[in-house]
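Subject: for your reference before the review

Hello V.,

The reviewers asked for a structural picture of the protein, and I figured it would be easier to keep everything in one thread rather than splitting it across files. Below is the amino acid sequence we used in the manuscript, unchanged from the supplementary table.
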Amino acid sequence: MPNRKNDATTPKCHPEPQRRNDDRAKLTKARICNAMVSCLDEVGYREASINLVQARAGVSRGALTYHFPSKEDMVIEVLERLLDPVRGEAGEAGRPLLPPRTTGRGDGLRTDLKRLWSRLVNTSEGRAMFEILVAARTDTALQARISPSLAKYNEQINRSILSLYTAPTGGDDDVVILWTICRTFLRGLHVQERFEVDPDTMDAVMDRFAELIAPLMVPRKTSQEMQDHDEKPV
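And here is what came back from the structure prediction:
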């Protein structure tokens, strides 16, 4: 009787089916999260129901609840995905908006602020995040779940900005405070936008704020730039 363990014709176990299942699961989660982002942006947190997200994502109720048993679970996952490209943990789908030398060290704060407004804050994703933050103000359960991620995000952003900028009239604490002011201002534009008739006004407000704050934060010199400066004759 042949030894089946050594039988060359015995099918070998391959990881491909499991990998395909994992890939399908990731794609399904991404579709659901993208649908939730668009719903948050278009109809707001309250109206972004599971039924609406399901229809927008084009998935079955079973598939949706398998990955996200509740709306809150969906929101948590969406928030994590929205934070990742900013804090530098994005994969191929995104990249940090403020990595070292993004601005070339010559463009400065004004360019960074305008980039953040146009590529992050004033986007569907930025407005979706704003909806989540506003909802968490009165939803204590949601607030409790997102607070750790927001605190971690805040620490990472502060470390990132300290690697990029310095304050001519203050220390690192001043840089962090100034950048917090910038972030507060950018998010506040979503509220002010409701008062404005001309949408172009927001761009003008953004430009003027950048002009005001730019002298207070200057690009931090790299070690190579400091070495080049030291080697110059006096």
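For the response letter, the relevant points are probably these. Residues 89-106, 229-234 have pLDDT under 50 and may be disordered. The two ends are 91 Å apart (CA to CA).

Happy to draft the paragraph if you're swamped.

O.
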